[in-house]
């Protein structure tokens, strides 16, 4: 059993996704069994919550044992976490903040596994935010993409427009009103003609940049249900994008100068065998 207090108006599903990863994984079952109580009353629906509501989840011990992250590195200033696919960045932050002072620095899409770094005090937060803003943090991703790439290495340039209402982005080859320039560098590591393992470096970190840019050039990330290839996703049985934030390299100063040049690596690899929709993790 886990108990939480709602901090603002939102649906039960959104609240669960943002504060309790294990409850999020088990959410369909919890609703079917009416194993969630809001202010003492059982519910089987995705009801609207209000500030101050008390939510209790009657998750099983097995459900509660499902991990949301692994700690890759931790000291008095920072924590580097390896997030499991299916976990909201906000939920990971919430879990860490329950253990002590924690500051949110950057995020990953829910269904992207891999590395996130958090600050544990204000000085570390300030330096990490500066490092990200000044592009002194290099993020390298691995993605399993559909198709055979014409070029083994390339630097892609495009223009990204956010569609807030549709909760997605669109990529164009030429500038247009409201668009932000994006740069995505890739290197094909291996492939069999139908699938390619690709290393990707972001030179501009925009919403859904990798997923949208790969789809734009005709090589969508396998399992991507928003920008991907529905037919090929169905053929391979993938329902979660096979994308991992694999490496995090720091160029830090000031309070974090001792971490300058440090590189961290995720244990996750984007592989088809990990794409079972009932599995909350990618190994």
From TrEMBL:
Protein name as catalogued: RNA pseudouridylate synthase
GO biological process, one term: enzyme-directed rRNA pseudouridine synthesis
Similarity remark: Belongs to the pseudouridine synthase RluA family.
Superkingdom of this protein's organism: Bacteria
Enzymatic reactions: a uridine in RNA = a pseudouridine in RNA
Gene3D superfamilies for this protein: Pseudouridine synthase
Molecular function terms, GO-annotated: catalytic activity, acting on RNA; pseudouridine synthase activity; RNA binding
Pfam families (UniProt xref): PseudoU_synth_2
Residue stretches making up the Pseudouridine synthase RsuA/RluA-like domain: 92-215
């Amino acid at each position: 059993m886990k108990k939480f207090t709602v901090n603002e108006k939102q649906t039960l599903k959104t609240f669960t996704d943002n504060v309790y990863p294990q409850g999020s994984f088990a959410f369909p079952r919890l609703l079917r069994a009416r194993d969630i109580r809001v202010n003492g009353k059982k519910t089987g629906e995705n009801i609207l919550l209000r500030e101050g509501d008390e939510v209790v989840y009657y998750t099983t011990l097995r459900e509660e044992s499902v991990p949301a992250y692994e700690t890759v590195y931790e000291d008095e200033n920072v924590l580097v976490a390896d997030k499991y696919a299916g976990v909201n960045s906000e939920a990971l932050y919430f879990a860490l903040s329950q253990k002590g002072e924690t500051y949110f620095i950057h995020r990953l899409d829910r269904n992207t596994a891999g590395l996130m770094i958090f600050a544990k005090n204000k000085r570390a937060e300030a330096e990490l935010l500066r490092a990200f803003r000044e592009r002194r943090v290099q993020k390298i991703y691995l993605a399993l993409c559909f198709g055979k790439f014409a070029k083994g290495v390339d630097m892609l340039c495009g223009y990204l427009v956010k569609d807030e209402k549709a909760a997605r982005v669109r990529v164009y080859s030429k500038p247009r009103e409201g668009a932000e320039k994006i740069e995505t560098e890739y290197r094909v590591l291996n492939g069999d003609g139908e699938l390619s393992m690709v290393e990707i470096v972001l030179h501009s970190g925009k919403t859904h940049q990798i997923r949208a840019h790969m789809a734009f050039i005709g090589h969508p990330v396998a399992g991507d249900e928003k920008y991907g290839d529905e037919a090929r996703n169905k053929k391979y049985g993938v329902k979660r994008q096979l994308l991992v934030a694999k490496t995090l390299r720091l160029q830090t100063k000031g309070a974090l100068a001792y971490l300058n040049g440090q590189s961290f690596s995720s244990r996750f690899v984007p592989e088809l065998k990990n794409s079972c929709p009932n599995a909350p993790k990618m190994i």
